[in-house]
Amino acid sequence: LERVDDDPAVFTSDRLPSDPRFLATVANGYLGTRMYGDVLHVNGVYNGSAKECHRADVPSTINVKLNMPNEKSFKQTFTLNTRTGTFSHTLACQDYVVTQRIFAHRSFVNLLVFSVSVQRLVASGQPIAVQLLSSFSPQSPDIDFKSGPDFKGGRYVYGETLIPEVEHCPQSSVHMIWTPAPKSLTLPVGKQRGSWVFLTAVAESASEAQSCFSEGLSMIATSQLYPSHRDAWAELWRTSCVEVEGHFFLSQALYGCFYYLFSSLPPLKPTDFLFNGISPGGLSNGSKDQDYWGHVFWDQDIWMYPNVLLFYPELARAILKYRISTLKGALANAQQQGHKGAKYPWESAVTGYEVCPEAIYGTQEIHITGDVSFAFQLYFYFTQDLELFRKDGGWEVIAAIAEYWSSRVTWNAAGSCYDIKGVMPPDEYYSSVNNSVYTNVVAKYSLEFAVNLASKLQIPIPPEWLKIAEKIKVPFDLERQYHPEFDGYRLGKSVKQADAVLLGFPLMYPMSLDVRKNDLEIYEAVTSPEGPAMTWSMFAVGWMELKESKMAQNQLKKCFSNIQEPFKIWTECSNGSGAVNFLTGMGGFLQAVLFGYTGFRITKVCLYFDPMLPEDIRELKIIGVHYLGNKLDFTLTKDTVTVELTRIWVPQHSFLEIVLNASAKRFPLNEGHPVTFAFGAGKVQKQTS
């Protein structure tokens, strides 16, 4: 991998990875594809019923490779530019340069584009011929495509998925219009430069596909197609970014993680399509038998979502609205298992019905329901947006989840507590256990949040919700001062992944520093090194809380073994196996930086911070934290913390102040007036008179 002008956001190589799974991806929240892959995927388009449900494969029109048959010697480079959201392939020789550029348009999400440009480097010469190699065929194993009439020079196919997710669910429609690529392009004698643009529009209807294709053609005619895409990415980076001084490879990893995460999200501007969540491998992956089939797990709500919320509450809202849209299925899941309320599926597609291929996970890994509630809770604490709950269906989700937990618990008279029996904890080495400590805490939080929210909305609720929350058992070993994963867990038994350590973060369950340390030491020693990528980041956050810098860095370094070169693709396991491009691992890694180094904690009354910088980072800048309608920049050095209010985002924003822990000093935050103070803990909160 080359360092291109020392820009950590640009990944360039002279060869492609030998494993095609490690190729870069382009996506925009609606369309996604892997470079030089045969298929693309469309947001919310799945084929197959229940346990066979997977992302429907749509043939990729942009799987086109360049070849120079008449040139014996040339230098080629492959580049993923995360700043512009583009992948490029360049062939350069002494007389000319050929460049292919591929992108999924960031603003006009129905459009996929590839272009080819040829630039002469000498005044005269022979015609320059470029071969375009493609095996494209407008056929799919998942969609019954039919050919329609050409439209404005573009070919047109349309069809429906073959099998609905559930019986009463309509099949998805896909309409695609694309500019066919010829077998070759030629720059004639006498021309110094030539360029060709190939456009694909994908939509749910013929009229929408035609409208999007026409809009794309208009932007090509006015030379605005690529600039509008580039500018949309520039706006994302301008308003949210992490800058690291002193650690180039950490910077690279962060840019890669943010790029792939942002690629999985819809644009900042309002869109007409219902966003259908983020799967562990993102929109570019998830075909049948691959990358968890494109299903949505707790990975979205616990591992990816907090990073989105910190910068873009409006995009976090889109994720929550996906959960609102699938409430009907969640209600049916609970009913099928003999419970009240809503049980969110372990694996979700469009309807919210359980689509996990293996029944035990769908039946027992019920912590997902508490994870969904916790995501809503963080959103409310961070934004104070009651409208989502009052008008847009958020309250119905929270109430249904509380009702589920109240029907799922069992009273234990001997222990004078409520048990939750027969579950699989996040640590999937175990099943049919009682009182998973993680599951019980998220259940407790779900009930408490429902009570708190009902009070603000002035909605009457069953009195037992609070009683159950107060009496749910949270396993704790008084003698050894640690949290067993579940009733009957034996010290020293292997665990698959982060589980009980999640109580400290992200759940922020109250405990002493000694207990926090015991949990970390006990579970770090027995966690499988073959476990999924996100695990080590949570141990790192824990050690940062305890100001154990060396221990934290040792854990964080483990994450780098999951990053595959040259395009910073994450794999679920460090040996390259498992899901790709593993956004779950990226989400955990980002949290280690965004919530670990800064010590950010989203609470009911403030955004708490307690920073810790390792020796090899001279400065860390978090740009665009979006708290209570205000955009904030945080700059951390070895000796100081600087906070600047850069923009008031919404008219109903809250006026903020900083309160330092050590001195109790208060600093009002005013736009354009940075506040600097000694390195240490404090909080950002609403101003008090």
Automatic annotation (TrEMBL):
MF terms (GO), sorted A to Z: protein-glucosylgalactosylhydroxylysine glucosidase activity
Enzyme class: hydrolase
UniProt keyword annotations, A-Z: Glycosidase, Hydrolase
UniProt superkingdom: Eukaryota
Domain Glycoside hydrolase family 65 central catalytic: 286-489
An individual GO BP term: carbohydrate metabolic process
Gene3D superfamilies, alphabetized: 1.50.10.10, Maltose phosphorylase, domain 3
Enzyme Commission number(s) of this protein: 3.2.1.107
Database matches in Pfam families: Glyco_hydro_65C, Glyco_hydro_65m
Glycoside hydrolase family 65 C-terminal domain ranges (all copies): 606-646
GO cellular component: cytosol
Annotated catalysed reactions: (5R)-5-O-[alpha-D-glucosyl-(1->2)-beta-D-galactosyl]-5-hydroxy-L-lysyl-[collagen] + H2O = (5R)-5-O-(beta-D-galactosyl)-5-hydroxy-L-lysyl-[collagen] + D-glucose
InterPro entries reported in the protein's UniProt record: 6-hairpin_glycosidase_sf, 6hp_glycosidase-like_sf, Glyco_hydro_65_C, Glyco_hydro_65_M
Main function: Catalyzes the hydrolysis of glucose from the disaccharide unit linked to hydroxylysine residues of collagen and collagen-like proteins.
Family from the record: Belongs to the glycosyl hydrolase 65 family.
Protein name: Protein-glucosylgalactosylhydroxylysine glucosidase
